[in-house]
Amino acid sequence: TLFAGPDASVDMIAPQASAMRDQLLSLAAAGGSMPPALHQSLTAEGQAKLAQWARDVDLRAVAHALHEDMVTDVRPGLPSVAVPLDILVPLAGSEAEQARTKALYADAYAPAPKARFIWIEQSAHFVMLDQPERFEREVRAFLAAGH
């Protein structure tokens, strides 16, 4: 749904997923490296880690994992998730951007009966890099609650 909206189906996203996989496999075959997604962290330290990860990653593994992730629709199973589901949601940008992010997550997880959102402000995609103390605190709290 991140690529094609909330009404996306596997059939709709499959061509894009295959194209992305094939592009990464071609890049790997040519000896290229993963372009670092520096925008996915707000801190200089996080961006440095992302750049290192991009240099070290096996592009073939990323290509296949990305494809499998994109063509796997777990939405039908969300209503039957009986365990607590704490979702750490990164929030950055303007109030309008944050409102869109909140709505995206709320809509995506609406069918999950025990979904709980934990809004992590001043964080991009990699919460553990931008807000490591908060990330650790939330994970420890979840585990301490016996989940």
Quick description:
The chain is mainly alpha-helical and 147 residues long. The protein is built from 6 helices and 2 strands, in the order αααβαβαα.
Main attributes of the structure:
single chain, 147 residues, mainly alpha, two-stranded parallel sheet, 6 helices, 2 strands, 52% helix
* Sequence stretches where pLDDT stays below 50 over 5 or more residues: none
Mean pLDDT: 94
State the share of residues found in helices, binned by percent. Answer: 40-55%
Number of strands: 2
Helix/strand structural class: mainly alpha
- Termini separation: 27 Å
Strand arrangement across the biggest beta sheet = 1-2
Task: Enumerate how many helices there are, as a single number.
Answer: 6
Order of helix and strand elements from N to C terminus: HHHEHEHH
Largest sheet: 2 strands, parallel
Instruction: Please give the radius of gyration in angstroms.
Output: 17 Å
Taken as a percent bin, the fraction of beta residues is: 5-15%
